[in-house]
Amino acid sequence: MTTAGGSGYYVRWVELQRQAQVVDEERDFLGEVRAALNEAFQREGNPLGDDQYGAQFQKNLTEMKTGIFDAFDAYIGEVGSVSERLRENAANYERAEQANDPEQRT
User: Fold this and answer.
1) CA angle, corner 77, sides to 59 and 40, nearest 5?
2) Which residues in 15-50 are b (16+ Cβ under 10 Å) and which e?
3) pLDDT per residue over 28-67, tens digit each?
């Protein structure tokens, strides 16, 4: 966005679309990290063993994993939502620009 002589501002809607793609890539990366973490949990099982600490950890493991993956899913969802809103804003600004373009009105 740049100021146009104090009379408002101009939005480069193409840049909003480009940033939405960047955010999509970040969302995809977060999904890969989530999957890798899930694989690590599956592979390792109870990493503390069968002593009293391992037994206590095992009691809480399911609840901890649920919390971790719920938080990951919520974060990934929010990142996806940012991408969607960037695309919506880009479309709105593109329509506004076309509506103000005399060549588009003919």
Assistant:
1) 40
2) ebbebbeebbeebeebeeebeeeeeeeeeeeeeeee
3) 999 999 999 999 988 887 777 778 888 888 888 889 999 9
* Euclidean distance between CA atoms 32 and 35, whole angstroms: 5
DSSP 49: -
Question: Exposed, middle or buried: residue 53 (CB in 10 Å: 0-12, 13-18, 19+)?
Answer: exposed
Spatial separation of the C-alpha atoms in residues 96 and 99, rounded to whole Å: 5
Q: Tell me which residue has tokens 């600004």.
A: 93
One-letter identity of residue 73: D
| Overall pTM surpassing 0.85 (yes/no) | no
Task: Name the amino acid, one letter, at 95.
Answer: R
Give Cα separations from 14 to 18, 25, 35, 94 (angstroms): 6, 17, 32, 8
What residues form DSSP beta bridges with 2? 10
49/6 Cα distance (integer angstroms) = 67
